[in-house]
Amino acid sequence: MTVYPIPAFLISLVTLSFAAWIGVTRFTRMRTEVAALRDEFGVIQGATLTLLGLIIGFTFSMALSRYEQRMNYEEEEANAIGTEYLRADLLPAADAAKVRTLLRSYVDQRMLFYSTRNPAGLEKIATETARLQAELWSAVSAPAVAQQTPLLTLVVAGMNDVLNSQGYTQAAWLNRIPFSAWLLVVLIGACATMLVGIGTRRSDTVPHLVMVLPLVISLALFLIADIDSPRGGIIRIAPQNLQILAQSMQAS
Questions:
Q1: Can you give the pTM of this predicted structure?
Q2: Is the C-alpha dihedral spanning 49, 51, 55, 57 positive or negative?
Q3: What is the DSSP secondary-structure string of 34-77?
Q4: In terms of C-beta distances under 8 Å and separation of at least 24 residues, what long-range contacts does 32-36 make, across chains too?
Q5: What is the per-residue pLDDT across 34-78, written as a single tens digit (0 to 9) for each?
Q6: In whole angstroms, what is the distance from residue 47 CA to residue 44 CA?
Q7: What pLDDT, on the 0 to 100 scale, is given for residue 79?
């Protein structure tokens, strides 16, 4: 399930602000008890805030590792296609020309995969990619079957790497932070902001200092959701390696 940045920010801000408001306005009796047990309450409040910080840091690490994985697979995919483009020289001349033409079209589709956000456009890209993959495999497998040599086997293995790299990329883009992890962060954040609200001595501090914590937490969740959402956020992966490869293919 994809959690988009702006909804994540708005939902978390409203939820955490409401929790802080409840803590300030609805626990008058508990606030009196807290005043008598200020040290004990400070331990609980500090532990909850520490746990919240750890959970946010862990969630950010999850999002960052997935972002880096998508970047690495883009590089690996470009390397696999570039290698196979060079190995096409090992095929007969007519087959080599066909494979190179197909690979140039294939690179164009792979670059569109990174830049397109429209679901309808993505479906067209997936259909065209599957068609090109079938033609590429047929273009290298037919000569390899007709003439089984170690060199042609190398070409077939390279094409297998090209097809596999696309599958790895697709899997990485579908890999998201679980919704249960998002729910856990919001729940712990609500508890922490509520405790901060309970710990205040005056209810008129709500519009001021108490609301700083919900805002900061919401901004952190916005950043995490942005990194974790490759199509719905501001931080996106540019197919730089594929673009360089496409330019080199056009020049050759």
A1: 0.85
A2: positive
A3: HHHTHHHHHHHHHHHHHHHHHHHHHHHHHHHHHHHHHHHHHHHH
A4: 34/198, 34/199, 35/201
A5: 666 777 777 888 899 999 999 999 999 999 999 999 999 999 999
A6: 5
A7: 96
